[in-house]
Specification:
- It is a single chain.
- Helix 3 packs across helix 4.
- Helix content is about 30%, strand content about 25%.
- The protein has 3 domains: about 210 residues, 3-Layer(bba) Sandwich (FAD/NAD(P)-binding domain), CATH 3.50.50.60; about 110 residues, FAD/NAD(P)-binding domain (3-Layer(bba) Sandwich), CATH 3.50.50.60; about 110 residues, FAD/NAD-linked reductase, C-terminal dimerisation domain (Enolase-like, domain 1, 2-Layer Sandwich).
- The protein is of the alpha/beta class.
- The chain has 12 helices and 22 strands.
- The longest helix has 25 residues.
- Strands 1, 2, 3, 4, 5, 6 and 17 form a 7-stranded mixed beta sheet that branches. Strands 8-15-9-10-11 form a 5-stranded parallel beta sheet. Strands 18-19-22-21-20 form a 5-stranded antiparallel beta sheet, with helices on both faces.
- It is globular.
- The structure holds flavin-adenine dinucleotide.
- The site of flavin-adenine dinucleotide has 38 residues, from helix 1, strand 2, helix 2, helix 3 and strand 4.
């Protein structure tokens, strides 16, 4: 596409709807290529659900709780039996300050790249036209050659649950929790539910975690999922697997959860964290000739193009993997597809999993269950954090690193890490795992010299442990 010449102040080469990671990645790629771009954002600040309600606040809350736990468990600090106690409302302050920093930084990206931001809610009115309804109710019309839908997702709210009740929350509204609960029920034990279970339990709050499946985070390697279950159990989280709600009853001072199995439980509040819906219902998609599926999601091709040639979609609104990390990349790839007519880049096949529970979990590649089902002759190399000097120094002895490799070629097939900083540690292994040909073998970890003492050394220990199993 040629460099744009502005034709009218309300016409753009591309209008990107949504300023989360997907929209930002796309807008930056497009403006840097010289296109005239507008980003539409219905909130008063940029950053998307990622910055304001999702990734950033939950990670900031988790970080504070994890430091409190570290302080309270360390003999260095608690010599005089001093313990820190905090509340959810108190630790929200740190999250708010990070949100502020992120928002200012992201606004700076748009300002520096002369990208127009239009604040208001977008809806299509024609194939190349959209209406923007601003906070004061004014409706303006804008046209574009192309559109990128990056409107993200929101928590799924079943109709029979009363989310207007002051003690019933979802993962967005939990951030405005005003009272300090002593007992929380979390309905849904996916990644978001499990992360919030860690946050609340770390603050000393009683947590009942209701799982609609038969095990926690069943997509993980079984050992990782079992380790999380054990640590939740050990820290006092009550997990109930294979349960479905019958009724969620709001009372004056809390909530009663009625389960289809006949059980009942009572708590000060309930966090409903069971599924998400794509934000497409308010876009009037039929005006542009599109239709979302029952979960509000859009289907796309390798270029992130939808069924309508000039409309693209990225991020949570297209479903899997529904991660901020992937949404940024999808945004950059769609920009390339629009500018060059074809995207050369592709999302990597093995997207790492980062789960910020306490302890943290991260993995890349295959699980033991997948390799066994595929009859791959693999072997396992393990390192336990408690045997690493750096972990002993830092008091991080809970955790392990597991490398799965082919017993004949020593090709790395999967890496699974459990423990503090797992989401960082995994990237050392990922760099080798992603190498093509002979670069991707256990030998790298055996032949290289690691800084000492480091957590990275776990790779050498695990590799040697695995090698010793070969005969
Ligand atoms: C609690 C929680 C924790 C998470 N933790 C992680 C994590 O640790 N790591 C990770 O990678 N991912 C995490 N995620 C997922 C991550 O936040 C999402 O994958 C990511 O935000 C998706 O980016 P996006 O650009 O598609 O949408 P979003 O970030 O949701 O942004 C969409 C934007 O579009 C705007 N919008 C919607 N409709 C309109 C409209 N009609 N007009 C104008 N603007 C509109 C919205 O206001 C919003 O600002 C988490 C999510 C949650 C909820």
């Amino acid at each position: 596409m040629s460099k744009a010449t502005p034709t009218s102040s309300s016409h753009f080469d591309v209008i990107v709807i949504g300023s989360g990671p997907g929209g930002e990645g796309a807008a930056m790629g497009l403006t840097k290529a010289g296109l005239r771009v507008a980003v539409v954002e219905k909130e008063s600040t940029v950053g998307g659900g990622c910055t304001h309600w999702g990734t950033i606040p939950s990670k900031a809350l988790r970080h504070t709780v994890s430091r409190i736990i570290e302080f309270n468990q360390s003999p260095i600090y608690t010599g005089d039996n001093q313990h820190i106690h905090s509340t959810f409302s108190a630790i929200l302050g740190h999250a708010q300050s990070v949100i502020g920093k992120q928002t200012r930084m992201r606004q700076g990206f748009y300002d520096r790249n002369l990208c127009t931001i239009l604040h208001g809610s977008a809806r299509f009115s024609n194939t190349h036209e959209m209406e923007l309804t601003t906070a004061d109710g004014t409706v303006d019309k804008y046209t574009a050659d192309k559109f990128v839908i990056a409107t993200g997702s929101r928590p799924y709210r079943p109709k029979d649950v009363d989310f207007t009740h002051p003690r019933v929350y979802d993962s967005d509204s939990i951030l405005s929790l005003q009272h300090d609960p002593r007992h929380v029920i979390i309905y849904g034990a996916g990644v978001i539910g499990s992360e919030y279970a860690s946050i609340f339990r770390g603050l000393g709050i009683k947590v009942d975690l209701i799982n609609t499946r038969d095990r926690l985070l069943s997509f993980l390697d079984n050992e990782m999922s079992d380790s999380l279950s054990y640590h939740f159990w050990n820290s006092g989280v009550l997990i109930r697997n294979d349960e479905t709600y019958e009724k969620i009853e709001g009372t004056k001072e809390g909530v009663i959860l009625h389960l289809q199995s006949g059980k009942k439980m009572k708590a000060d509040c309930l966090l409903f964290a069971n599924g998400r819906t794509g934000n497409t219902d308010s876009l009037n998609l039929k005006a542009v000739g599109l239709k979302a599926d029952s979960r509000g999601q859009l289907s796309v091709n390798d270029n992130y193009g939808t069924a309508v040639e000039h409309v693209y979609a990225v991020g949570d609104v297209i479903g899997y993997p529904s991660l901020a990390s992937a949404a940024y990349d999808q945004g950059r790839i769609v920009a390339q597809a629009i500018v060059e007519g074809q995207a050369n880049g592709r999302l990597i096949d093995h997207i790492p999993t980062g789960i910020y529970t306490i302890p943290e979990i991260s993995s890349v590649g295959k699980t033991e269950q997948e390799l066994t089902a595929a009859k791959v002759p693999y072997e396992v190399g393990r390192a336990q954090f408690k045997h690493l000097a750096r972990a002993q120094i830092a008091g991080m002895d809970v955790g392990s690193l597991k490398i799965l490799f082919h017993r004949e070629t020593k090709e790395i097939l999967g890496i699974h890490c459990f423990g503090e900083r797992a989401a960082e540690i995994i990237h050392i292994g990922q760099a080798i795992f992603e190498q093509k040909g002979e670069g991707n073998t256990l030998d790298y970890f055996i032949n290289t010299t690691f800084n000492y003492p480091t957590m990275a050394e776990a790779y050498r220990v695990a590799a040697l442990n695995g090698l010793n199993r070969l005969f």
